[in-house]
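FAQ

Q: What does a record look like?
A: Structure on top, sequence underneath. For example:
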């Protein structure tokens, strides 16, 4: 089977890591692979380490539409918003079928080109029930499939883990890792830290990330000694190994890949009952859920997990089971079944 993956993002965030993880797994499964990627993206260098993958550098969705790019491909797999237009043009020009994986739970755009691109797809994949719901609202007649993303694993440097542990010695370390956008709920985490500052001085919050909301959040956290802004991190494996708990109280979220990554690393997790997060956090089983924006709930659950070893062990066991169910080996087989259905249709 020859699959052409398309991701035209210029950065290297969760969606790009998911694209890479799937391509790596499919290479192990014996696929022929083509990847159409933005030349500015770090994804390019990662893909160069995969001999089975031919790389096509494409700075814009209107470029690189030669017949030869997909001449031997069975199907195009779209992984982000701009890539859907590239797949649409390739389909209209050369009749190559394509599927779309949508990772965000926002309502779909009403623009005619976007609607056409989704309508022409052979199948639409949502990472969560909420994303599938949003797809169904706009395209009720489409073939809709829910396939959760898979956790990415990161290398761990024991020296760096020990440095983090030494810096926060004696503290119960809570991390919140995301780009600092308003919908990521950092304000909720900071407010929970404020509520715990006097009653639980041994709980330390580290906010891992950067973005346009950082200055405002730093203002909100002014005077709190139990909150530290650590900036954007490239060594998440070290932080997962050093931390005691991950919180992710987003107001909206496609699925929350960082939650799955933390689960894989053996951390208990707390998320918000928003977007696709409830698909992977079963309250009291694989983690805890708060109502969006409820800092009081978040503070209480953090304190419970910090103080109750049995509860923490129970949640870690459940989170490991959830992460295993989303392993890339399972995800790749699910996608393979979908590819075969589209190809033979």
């Amino acid at each position: 089977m020859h699959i052409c993956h398309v991701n035209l993002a210029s950065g290297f965030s969760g969606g790009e890591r998911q694209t890479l993880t799937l391509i790596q797994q499919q290479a192990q499964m014996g696929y022929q692979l083509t990847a159409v990627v933005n030349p500015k993206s770090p994804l390019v260098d990662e893909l160069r380490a995969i001999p089975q993958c031919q790389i096509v550098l494409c700075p814009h969705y209107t470029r690189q539409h030669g017949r030869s790019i997909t001449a031997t491909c069975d199907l195009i797999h779209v992984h982000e918003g701009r890539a859907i237009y590239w797949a649409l043009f390739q389909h209209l020009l050369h009749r190559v079928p394509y599927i779309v994986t949508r990772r965000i739970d926002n309502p779909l755009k009403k623009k005619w080109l976007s609607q056409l691109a989704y309508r022409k797809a052979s199948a639409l994949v949502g990472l969560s029930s909420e994303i599938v719901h949003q797809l169904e609202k706009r395209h009720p007649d489409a073939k809709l499939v829910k396939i959760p993303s898979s956790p990415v694993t990161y290398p761990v440097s024991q020296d760096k883990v020990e440095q983090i542990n030494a810096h926060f010695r004696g503290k119960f370390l809570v991390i919140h890792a995301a780009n600092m956008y308003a919908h990521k709920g950092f304000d909720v985490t900071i407010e929970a830290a404020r509520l715990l500052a006097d009653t639980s001085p041994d709980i330390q919050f580290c906010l891992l990330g950067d973005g346009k909301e950082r200055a405002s959040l730093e203002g909100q956290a002014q005077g709190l000694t139990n909150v530290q802004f650590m900036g954007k991190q490239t060594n998440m494996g070290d932080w997962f190994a050093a931390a005691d708990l991950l919180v992710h109280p987003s107001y909206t979220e496609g699925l929350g890949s960082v939650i799955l990554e933390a689960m894989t690393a053996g951390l208990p997790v707390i998320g918000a009952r928003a977007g696709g997060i409830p698909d992977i956090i079963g309250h009291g089983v694989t983690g805890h859920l708060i109502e969006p924006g409820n800092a009081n709930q978040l503070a209480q659950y953090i304190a419970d997990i910090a103080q109750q070893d049995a509860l923490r062990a129970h949640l870690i066991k459940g989170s490991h089971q959830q992460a295993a169910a989303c392993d890339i080996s399972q995800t790749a087989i699910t996608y393979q079944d979908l590819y075969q259905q589209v190809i033979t249709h």
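Q: Is there anything notable about this one?
A: The domain at 158-325 is CATH 3.40.50.2000 (Rossmann fold).
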